[in-house]
Amino acid sequence: MDCVSIPFLSIKRSFNNPQWGLQMISNIKDLTFKKNNLKVKFHFDRLHCHDEAGGWGNAEPYMWTVFFKIDGTTCRLNDSLMLEGTATIFTSPGNYGHLADSDVDAGDTMPIPSTIGLKEMTLIPIPVPDTVKKTGIGDIPAFAGCIVVLMEGDRTKAGFQAFDANIQKALNSLIPTLGFAKKDISEEDIRSLTGKIQVKIEDAIKNQQHLLENFQSWINADNTIGTAAFNFSGDQLLAHKLTSLNERWINDNGDWELFGSVNAIEQPSCSERV
Q: Which residues lie below 8 Å from residue 129, measured CB to CB, with a gap of 6+?
């Protein structure tokens, strides 16, 4: 018997024991606000080149992905009703040549390896203080997301460590701004985050090279085709079931389109923190 069915059985029994019935009704209120764990699956499956803008030669794209979650694993709502804790990030081995096709022309579609395009995670609701629990609210929604950087590279391979480190730092700095009054990560938050990360990547590529490499990069450089950030609350994931993660970049580095999806399955639990 699962935990959701117990209160309804208890209501029937309340005719024989009114006091116990009132207690079960109170429990139903708690269950109404209690949130379950979510099994979340991100999947980027293909990258399409509409125009490679490769100049003298074809393009050589590669992609970095970092998946993340802000949830009850490492975060909680404090007595000031603001979030505290750290984000959990999942890095990928993305690097030059990992898309298997280093000679991409307009019209080509590249499958994205599961090592960089697929991530499953368990999203745990964020616990609240006892003072909030007394109002009948059990937990607040957690967040899950992914940040993608698409590069077109011919010579240099620097910047991946800067990518990981700065995502962790940026997400951690975002957490204290969230809380009971601001429950969602805004579009402005995302634009600020991705903009700062792109600058850090480009600086790292320059700073980690010696003079000869910088000269080679000037001739045939690694270019950032684009960045994208996707983030969802647990409630949003449940409401939409399956959500597309498409992104298209059109700029001096060509015309590229990324395809993917995210879905979530609820995992009911009878434990206090579900």
A: 77, 78, 79, 81
Q: Where are the beta strands (DSSP E) in the chain?
A: 37-51, 61-70, 75-77, 83-85, 88-91, 109-111, 118-123, 126-127, 139-140, 143-152, 223-233, 242-244, 247-251, 254-267
Sort 137 into a burial class: Cβ within 10 Å, 0-12 / 13-18 / 19+. middle
Cβ contact 53:59 at 8 Å: yes
What single letter denotes the amino acid at residue 253? N
What is this structure's pTM? 0.76
3-state secondary structure at position 99: coil
- Give residue-wise pLDDT tens across range 15-51: 344 333 333 333 334 334 568 899 999 999 999 999 8
Residues 6+ apart with CB under 8 A from 54: 104, 105, 152, 254
Radius of gyration of the chain, Cα coordinates, nearest whole angstrom = 23
Place of tokens 């399409």: 48
Residue 106 in 3-state DSSP? coil
Q: How many other CB atoms are found less than 10 A from the CB of residue 29?
A: 14
Q: What is the DSSP string of 33-87?
A: H---EEEEEEEEEEEEEEE---TTS-B-EEEEEEEEEESTTTEEE-TTSBEEE--
Tokens 């490499």 label which residue?
A: 213
- Please name which of 166, 141, 146, 106 lies closest in space to residue 229, comparing C-alpha atoms: 146
Beta bridge partners of 265: 39
